[in-house]
Design a protein that fits this description.
Number of strands of chain A: 12
Helix content of chain A: 25-40%
Pfam families (chain A): ABC_tran
GO molecular function, one term (chain A): ATP binding
Strand content of chain A: 25-35%
Radius of gyration of chain A: 18 Å
Helix content of chain B: over 70%
Shape of chain B: globular
Order of helices and strands of chain A: EEEHEEHEHHHEHEHEEHHEE
Number of helices of chain A: 9
Radius of gyration of chain B: 21 Å
Family (chain A): Belongs to the ABC transporter superfamily.
Largest sheet of chain A: 6 strands, mixed
Oligomer: heterodimer
Protein name (chain A): ABC transporter ATP-binding protein
Structural class of chain A: alpha/beta
Number of strands of chain B: 0
Strand content of chain B: under 5%
InterPro entries (chain A): AAA+_ATPase, ABC_transporter-like_ATP-bd, ABC_transporter-like_CS, P-loop_NTPase
Chain lengths: 253, 348
């Protein structure tokens, strides 16, 4: 499975937020999407997930136009985790994860063993089994984020799209989550703020600024003082820690 | 661990089954009570004989007055009350889920306001469109108000808050039209009639009304049940629903249209009965949890029982006088709801 966008444009109020991005996302591995606030990362993810119609260009899933596919079909291949999810409905964590089975169940089909297995394995992967019965409203921000990821995993997607999933997490859970993403069977595209995390955990990194893709490649080639100065306007030095290959950023404060 | 795979918040699934069985029995008991209670004496034995005569062609001798009252008035009235209560509760459940708003109810989209305007035009100005009379006028009014709100909501852009605001605009406009007609054209007697109609009444219900009420409820219920899982997916909003594979805009259009039709049909038969569509869904949600494949049937049953009981009370609470059913639903329903609210309070 590959997800591909060609010259995609998405506008808000006539202003281009995503401005001609072409990107191909392979079936395996983690792609990091980095860029400043308001650079269009979230919008690009939503266009890629088919949640917003591209105003120009095309998004293709296995060569098929995403906009022509049935939502149900798309949801079996692509799962999306928003930055912030909330509900006033009194659901348990388990029931939230159950929602992930929606695209796999017809209106009258009974709950199956496959559904049960998908849910337990998703809860296990995010280490939330012990809180499955707890009410959503009583979960902490980090726990909610993990439950949402479990919901997405229960969809059994081929590609997972996450919008800054580490935002509400403490450092322990951030690192756990990034490890989790790296070990998934499906491919992942994830918007991240922390350049070190992106460098350490992503196979490839795409840099977005002002809605344009300005660099795409391995962490070593993309995370450079030059790029950081150009995109974030911050002076930094980049060097891998001793004995490692992946770059580490230190900002000149 | 086993137990944890089920929700701990609501009644367990077997409990939900029990709730459905219990409320089905309650529905039969309520219908039974509706047939036996009233000014004209009819014992349970009489009711059995009347039903046997009417349904299975038995030939028991029975007082023709009891027969007429039980069969023509009370039973048809109970059937319509059940359909109206169930229908309004169903619409409430669906709209609360779609709009993610606990205050959403069947009249939110301007339907009762439009129905009132239509009914008032018929009552006061004597408009009669193709001999449709009061129900026809109310239905056309409801349909035009919903059309107005739908066009406005579409024009105002997407987003549930926009739909709600469009509904408010439509309701205010049609309510103003109703008030305008009443204050400029009605005499005291007509005003009283209008008031009574607005608060709802099952007094005029006869068998022909069931030929509208039953199929409309059955079709609406079947459609909404087939969308129960899709409604669950709206818990985290439209975008989350879309990412779970729901065709959000076509589903929303379909469900709005079905609930509007159902509400318009109910309102055109029994008037704008309040409270049921807003509160029964909440009360049922407290008891069976938020998942729609349980919540929908449970709410429909609860709404049906509730409105039959409210109707019995409306014609027996004050002897020799019939109260508007909307008054009873709120008078009985509000304390009952308060108790449920209290008993199921969050303990966190």
């Amino acid at each position: 499975m590959t997800l591909e966008c060609r010259n995609v444009v998405w506008r808000a109020d006539g202003r281009p937020i995503v401005d001609g991005v072409s990107l191909s996302i392979p079936k395996r591995g983690v792609i990091g999407l980095v860029g400043p606030n308001g650079s269009g990362k979230s919008s690009l993810l939503r266009v890629l997930a088919g949640l917003r119609p591209a105003h120009g260009g095309a998004v293709l899933l296995d060569g098929q136009l995403l906009s022509r596919m049935r939502r149900r079909q798309v949801a079996r291949s692509l799962a999306f985790v928003a930055q912030h999810a909330d509900t006033g409905t009194e659901l348990s964590a388990h029931e939230v994860v159950m929602l992930g089975r929606t695209p796999h169940r017809s209106a009258w089909a009974a709950w199956s063993k496959t559904d049960d297995d998908a849910i337990s394995s998703a809860l296990r992967q995010v280490k939330m089994e012990h809180k499955a019965a707890q009410a959503w409203s009583t979960l902490s921000g980090g726990e909610r984020q993990r439950v949402q990821i479990a919901r997405a995993l229960a969809q059994k997607p081929e590609l997972l799209l996450l919008d800054e999933p580490t935002n509400h997490l403490d450092i322990r859970h951030q690192i756990d989550l990034l490890h989790l993403l790296r070990n998934l069977e499906c491919g992942t595209i994830v918007a991240l703020h922390d350049l070190d995390h992106a460098a350490a955990f992503c196979d490839r990194i795409a840099v977005i600024t002002d809605g344009r893709l300005i660099a795409e490649g391995t962490p070593e080639t993309v995370i450079t003082p030059d790029m950081i100065a150009r995109v974030f306007g911050v002076e930094a030095t980049v060097h891998p820690p001793s004995g490692q290959r992946r770059p580490r950023v230190s900002f000149c404060l | 661990m086993r137990a944890m795979t089920q929700s701990s918040l609501a009644i367990q699934p077997q409990g939900v089954g029990l709730f459905l069985v219990a409320s089905s029995i309650a529905l039969l008991l309520a219908a039974w009570a509706a047939m036996t209670i009233g000014d004209v004496e009819a014992s349970s034995g009489d009711v059995v004989r009347i039903l046997a005569n009417r349904l299975f062609g038995a030939a028991y001798t029975i007082d023709p007055i009891s027969d007429g009252v039980v069969w023509h008035y009370r039973l048809s009235r109970a059937v319509v009350a059940a359909c109206a209560g169930g229908g309004l509760a169903l619409c409430g459940v669906v709209l609360q889920a779609l709009l993610r708003n606990p205050l959403a109810e069947p009249y939110l989209l301007g339907i009762s306001a439009g129905a009132s305007t239509g009914a008032v035009l018929v009552i006061i100005l004597g408009f009669s469109i193709g001999g449709l009379g009061l129900s026809g006028g109310a239905f056309l009014g409801a349909a035009s108000a919903f059309g107005f709100v739908a066009i406005l909501a579409r024009g105002a852009g997407s987003g549930v808050d926009r739909v709600i605001l469009a509904g408010i605009a439509g309701a205010q406009l049609f309510n103003a039209a109703t008030s305008f007609i009443v204050t400029t054209s009605a005499d005291a007697e007509q005003t009283r009639g209008v008031m009574f109609w607005l608060l709802g009444s099952l007094g005029g219900v006869r068998w022909p009304d069931t030929w509208v009420a039953v199929p409309v409820l059955a079709l609406g219920l079947a459609y909404c049940l087939s969308k129960a899982r899709a409604l669950d997916a709206f818990a985290f909003g439209d975008e989350a629903a879309a990412s779970l594979g729901i065709e959000v805009s076509s589903l929303r259009t379909g469900l709005f249209a079905v609930t509007a039709l159902l509400t318009a049909a109910v309102v055109s038969i029994v008037g704008a009965v309040g409270f049921v569509g807003l509160v029964v869904p909440h009360a049922t949600r407290f008891l069976v949890g938020p998942r729609h494949e349980r919540l929908i049937p449970a709410s429909v049953l609860a709404g049906a029982v509730f409105l039959i009981v409210a109707d019995i009370l409306s014609r027996t609470m004050i002897s020799g006088q019939v109260l508007p059913i909307g008054v009873v639903t709120a008078m009985v329903g509000a304390p009952a709801f308060a108790i449920i609210l209290w008993r199921t309070r969050r303990r966190v």
